[in-house]
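Below is how a single chain appears once it has passed through the pipeline. First comes the sequence as given, then the structure the pipeline wrote out for it. We keep one example in the README because the format questions we get most often are answered faster by looking than by reading.
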Amino acid sequence: MSKYTDTLADVLVPQLRDGMTLAVGGFGLCGIPGTLIDIVRDAGVRDLTVVSNNLGIDGVGLGRLLEKGQISRVLASYIGENKLFMEQYLSGAVEVELVPQGTLAERMHAGGAGIAAFYTRTGVGTEVAEGKPTAEFDGETYLQERAIVADVSLVRAHTADVDGNLRYRLAARNFNPVVAQCGRLTFVEAEHIVARGDLGPDDIHTPGVYVHHLGDATTPTQIESLVTRPRPTQED
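Resulting structure:
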């Protein structure tokens, strides 16, 4: 059964509500589901908990939700270059739980795998460990981390077939596979939609079993900053 729709807003908006948890793919601006984020912004839902590597930069991607005051809590590994995010964090308007990057990925992976919690040495003896159970294994102290299961996951893929099988391009894969896994409902925007069977089994990064709805990505790929240097001349 095809999971493709040409009107993503029609299937996503009815699933949105105030106070829900969204897991969002991307790393900075690389691989962010900008089309789906814009749908959430336009829906006007508020008091959102957002799970993401970071919130990018002002006015782009998740920064659009910050501008509308729609986010109240963030689980992220990096506050990043978003000045508005920093201002809202320092003022107390947004609660932030900083999570080590590998731990954040594994918490989402665990949520998708049905694993309630796991133990890691990362964060032991730091503020990350406050209030969390610990256990000793082979003479080492480990910290218990709980799985993350999001109400809705938002994902961007480079290529998808109509059954929801996904392929990402290069570094844009980043957090998207684990975000796709941990959502009770997963919505995907893809730059290219192909027919059933056009993706070979070895080309699939996320199986369609994790995907509920799929549509076209309409926002352009962006980068956080462009850094250049002069090309050397023969005189140099």
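The helical segments are 8-12, 34-43, 63-67, 83-91, 101-113, 176-182.

See the next section for the split statistics.
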